[in-house]
Amino acid sequence: MAEKTQIINKARLEQRIHTLSQIGKISETGVCRLALSKEDKQAVETVKQWMEDAGLTARIDHFGNLIGRLEGRNSEAPILMLGSHIDSQPYAGRFDGVIGVLGALEAVQRMQELNILPNMPIEIVAFCDEEGCRFNKGLFGVRGMLGKLEEGELERKDKNGITRRQALEDFGCDPRKFMESEYPAGSISAFLEMHIEQGPILEAKKTPVGIVTGISGPLWLTVELEGFAGHAGSVPMHMRQDALVGAAKIVVALNELAGQDVEAPTVGTVGSMNIFPDSRNIIPEKVQFTIDLRDIEIERRNQMEEKLRKKIHDIAEYHDLTYKIIEDTNSEPRYCSERIMQVMRNESSEMGLKPIELMSGPFHDSLAMSYECEYGMIFVRCKDGISHNPKEYSTMEDISLGAELLYRTAIKIALDNE
User: Fold this and answer.
1) CA angle 245, 248, 253 (to 5 degrees)
2) Which CATH fold would you assign to the domain 217-330?
3) What does the radius of gyration of the chain's CA atoms come to, in whole angstroms?
4) How far is it, in rounded angstroms, from Cα 76 to Cα 96?
5) What is the spatial distance between Cα 402 and Cα 381, in angstroms, rounded to a whole number?
6) How many CB atoms lie within 10 A of CB 310?
7) Where are the alpha helices (DSSP H) in 298-417?
8) Where do the domains of the chain lie?
9) What is the pLDDT of residues 283-331, one digit of tens each?
10) What span, in angstroms and rounded, lies between the C-alpha atoms of 397 and 355?
């Protein structure tokens, strides 16, 4: 598509992405904006001001979600919601989540500037704590909004011992008023999200944007192993109950299980580990670590989980360890709305694009929204498929094309839906 035919303001979108990348900056291209941190609050306040400048009413709810609203002809109609997140991993790039929020803002701001009045209200949301890295459970804001939080979530602690409850209060939220921020069932008609692909497929196909067909189901487990501490210099190897040795074998077993079928998109990762008492000359007594297991086919993932649980049992038994497995997140694959995908196909054709259609391995806020309403996602090509890394990169040409498709899709839905 020729530059002159674009409706969205590419320069404004680029400037906002750059400005946000300076908040929580840790290197030339890296950022750290952990959920509910002071950096996250600064970013939320910055985007809130941009929303208000664009003529939207903006607020921060009690879950920490930032919500900008454009009224429609029928203010009581179910909402068309757009958005993503602006919190980040501790070692992150500039684009993950951000382009979905700022691209949505650009799309709605252009509607305002062109005097386009949607039939229903449109809301842009920067959801709180999509990443889940600080409190080891993600999609917090979107699940909170939908009334889907689980028992004990507010007592989860970060690595500094701060509970989510305390972090929310420090952010200016009041967990006692959660119900005031929940959306009634049926009040959201559809959800659209733009995101970098976080994978190599679009680049390999030399395609700037893709239409997402669904999201793989993530299974998050926390494994706790307990043995017995002893002096590293005096306890014979065959007499040890070393929890870290057991953990190491489980990590290898997970890697081998997930990699058995090179044709299958199964992936397994251990991303965080804590060792007690964490001394170089004491045999580790306790080890806690996370497991992230994903697949687009739930049956195959379930079979993998069953094999993994048996491995954990056998390894713990061999090393005379006790163990506990905690399920943190368990979601089935969720497929995108065929109606919305068809709108995206039609609008892509009008733009002269030929997007490929692909599944998402990473989960997104769309995963939680899929249980409430129909949803659609647009992927933007990212260099080498790198994400959750300061080297994460997408060109503004690709991002602006994604934003243009988001704008056109939102317009079509917002004007066609009576």
Assistant:
1) 125
2) Alpha-Beta Plaits (3.30.70)
3) 23
4) 32
5) 9
6) 11
7) 298-318, 338-351, 365-369, 396-416
8) 3-216+333-416, 217-330
9) 999 999 999 999 888 899 999 999 999 999 999 999 999 999 999 989 8
10) 15
The three-state secondary structure class of 250 is helix
Place of tokens 């958005």: 83
CA distances to 69, 144, 350 from 186, rounded to whole Å, are 17, 16, 32
Position 2 confidence tier, pLDDT thresholds 50, 70, 90: very low
Rounded distance between C-alpha atoms, residue 306 and residue 117, angstroms: 52
Residue 292, amino acid: D
Over residues 397-416, the pLDDT tens digits come to: 999 999 999 999 999 999 97
H-type alpha helices, 172-297 = 201-204, 243-258
Identify the residue whose tokens are 């004990």. 152
Q: Please choose, from the candidates 86, 90, 89, the residue with its C-alpha nearest in 3D space to the C-alpha of residue 127.
A: 86
Q: Tell which CATH architecture fits domain 3-216+333-416.
A: 3-Layer(aba) Sandwich (3.40)
Pairing between β-strand 267-269 and β-strand 286-295 as defined by DSSP bridges: antiparallel
